[in-house]
Specification:
- This protein folds into two domains: 10-50, no CATH class; 54-204, Alpha-Beta Complex (Nucleoside Triphosphate Pyrophosphohydrolase), CATH 3.90.79.
- It is an alpha+beta fold and 206 residues long.
- Strands 4, 5, 6, 7, 8, 9, 10 and 11 form an eight-stranded mixed sheet that branches. Strands 1-2-3 form a three-stranded antiparallel sheet, with no helix packed on it.
- The chain has helices spanning 101-113, 169-173, 184-204, and strands at 12-22, 26-34, 45-51, 54-62, 67-74, 86-89, 91-94, 119-127, 136-143, 151-153, 162-168.
């Protein structure tokens, strides 16, 4: 069994905060000190924090046809990638205040893929890059019928241009480590699906 962390939020002293930037995203600088493993308190340190907020991501799987839907869209963060900034991803979206992750997941599935799943399974939640951002992602698998899926979707007012590809599971899962999927949410979702695929087929095809 994993041990519990020695310290909690109560073992941190926030000294002051500075607002560095706020537009679509926000960046704060937090000055703090925290307790040390060898005893006592550390020195004051300053850390910039990208205030990204929480998000959801959903991999779409059809257990009857054994197919997976992947999204292709432009991402500024992939501008210098060898294969270009159009990435293969799972459905994703930001959680606003007061919203529940699964509610957001279902909304994003309609906006980005025009799909309403008949069942949802929780995969996990994780901090995307805790050294510099507070973003937490909640991952799901959406069980659905992909027989009529595919096409181009997204909200024009948000400048979204998203193509939905429906692919054979063997093709997708066999390419997890090929470099075709270069974002954590997609890789984690597909790894989970690879481990749970047979269970899902037995559960949702009977």
């Amino acid at each position: 069994m994993l041990p519990k962390p020695q310290f909690t939020r109560d073992d941190i002293e926030i000294i002051r905060e500075e607002k560095l930037y706020k537009r679509f995203f926000r960046v704060d600088k937090i000055f703090l000190r925290h307790k040390l493993f060898n005893g006592g308190w550390g020195n004051e340190i300053g850390r910039e924090l990208f205030m990204r907020g929480n998000a959801v991501a959903v991999v779409l799987y059809d257990p009857v046809a054994d197919q997976i839907a992947m999204l292709e869209q432009f991402r500024i963060g992939g501008l210098n990638e060898a294969n270009g900034p159009w990435l293969f991803e799972v459905v994703a979206g930001m959680i606003e205040d007061g919203e529940l992750p699964e509610e957001v997941a279902r909304r994003e599935l309609m906006e980005e893929a025009n799909i309403s799943p008949y069942a949802m399974e929780t995969i996990c939640d994780y901090l995307s890059s805790p050294g510099g951002t507070d973003e937490k992602l909640y991952l799901f698998c959406g069980l659905c019928d992909l027989s009529n899926a595919g096409g181009v979707y997204g909200l024009p007012e948000e400048n979204e241009d998203i193509r939905v590809h429906v692919l054979a599971s063997e093709e997708v899962l066999g390419s997890i480590y090929s470099g075709a999927f270069n974002n954590a949410a997609a890789i984690i979702c597909l790894q989970w699906l690879q481990m749970n695929r047979e269970r899902l087929r037995q559960t949702y095809t009977e």
